[in-house]
Every structure is written in structure tokens, then in C-alpha cells.
Request: fold
Amino acid sequence: MKKTIILFISLFSFAVYSQDSDYSVYFKSGTKLNVNDLDQLLGQVYLEKALEMKQTVKYEDYTELLAHRMAVVQIPEGKIGSLPSTNDLLLNIDYNSELTYDKDFNPSTFNPFKYDMNFFPNSPSISYRIGNSDYIIIILAK
Reply:
């Protein structure tokens, strides 16, 4: 029984890893969010608390995330598998209870910090489908 469970966990882990690995090949062709927009993006989510964040390690981590480890990619039709959608994630409403899910994806207004995404994955990468669009967001490990 233990061997069966271990085998199942191993296969599941490999399947998840393989799925993310397949999408990470699109990372270089993706569009990175503008680091200069970080204050605005954090301000939408954290309101006044965003100013306090500027002097923290978390702010530096978010800057590095936008500059080097996060990209939005349009995936060819039929190539998006069963990725978790941003519509299925919790919103980060601790500081701004008026945040809402994006009804239509717009690359110029998309704010990843609204969503409870794993910005610091243990696996090489993690990907999320953005709403019901043909766009995904790829986050590489640090």
C-alpha cells in the first residue's frame, strides 16, 4: 500500500512538473510587466500599506519578480491545458475589499498582485491561465 501511494505521488508530481516545464518554454517570448508600474500595482492592492512596503525585502523581491521571473504569454489556440485560472484564486482583499476579478483580460491593466498566486514557487516554474483568456502568466522560481 505504501509503495502504491509513493508511486502515485511521484507520478502526480512528475505530471505537475512536466506541465509547468512545457509552459516555461514560452517564457522568453512573453511580455514582462513593467517594473516602473510596481508602485501603482501594489497601491491598487495594498492601498496606504503600499508606501510602507517600499522599505522592505518584500518590495525588493517583487521588483526582482517583475524584472526577471514573471511573464505574460499569449498561448496558441488549443495549447492551454488544465492550468489553474486566476478566476479560481482568492483575491488579496486584506487591504482593499473592493478588488474584483477581471472580466476581460487586458495586458495593460492586468495586476497579478490582486490574486493569491504563488510568486515564489519551489518548482522551476508555475503557470496560471489568466481568466478564460488565451493568456497565461508564468512565474519562474527564484
User: Anything to note?
Assistant: Residues 2-140 form one domain. Residues 2-21 have pLDDT under 50 and may be disordered. Helices lie at 2-24, 38-46, 49-53, 57-69. The longest helix spans residues 2-24.
